[in-house]
């Protein structure tokens, strides 16, 4: 997989690809391309949801590694970070708003919601379920 040149919008590259495409995003649904946020035809959207506590811990460790590379100094202590995460004050926005944005699509047949923790336990059967 290659990234498009920075001066070329990603949707131009995506539109030029063959019909079977995979797009992975961490964006809130309000920023997702229209073909994902309002799917039609044969579009299938997998939404992988994760336990909020696990998400907070994972993001904290990611942030601890990334901040020095970006010259942002020392990350906050876990306690301070956890308060900010619960209060919706992290750099990617409110976790609950993000999850609820996608969750509103749960009754749309184009969407399949999976729990990350379940995927780790039963990968093979989920792989079959996703291909249907």
Automatic annotation (TrEMBL):
Stretches assigned to the Sulfotransferase domain: 10-121
E.C. number(s) listed in UniProt: 2.8.2.-
Keywords assigned by UniProt, alphabetized: Transferase
Recorded GO MF terms: sulfotransferase activity
GO biological process, one term: sulfation
Assigned GO CC terms: cytoplasm
Superkingdom: Eukaryota
Family named by the database record: Belongs to the sulfotransferase 1 family.
PANTHER family: SULFOTRANSFERASE SULT (PTHR11783)
Protein name: Sulfotransferase
């Amino acid at each position: 997989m290659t990234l498009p040149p920075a001066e070329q919008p990603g949707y131009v590259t995506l539109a030029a690809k063959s019909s079977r495409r995979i797009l992975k995003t961490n964006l809130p649904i309000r920023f997702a391309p229209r073909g994902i946020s309002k799917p039609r035809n044969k579009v299938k959207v997998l939404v992988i949801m994760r336990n909020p506590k696990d998400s907070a811990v994972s993001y904290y460790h990611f942030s601890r590694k990334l901040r020095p590379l970006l010259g942002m100094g020392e990350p906050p202590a876990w306690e301070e970070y956890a308060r900010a995460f619960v209060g919706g004050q992290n750099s990617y926005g409110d976790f609950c708003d993000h999850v609820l944005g996608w969750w509103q699509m749960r009754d749309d047949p184009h969407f399949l919601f999976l729990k990350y923790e379940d995927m780790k336990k039963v990968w093979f059967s989920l792989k079959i379920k996703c291909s249907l």
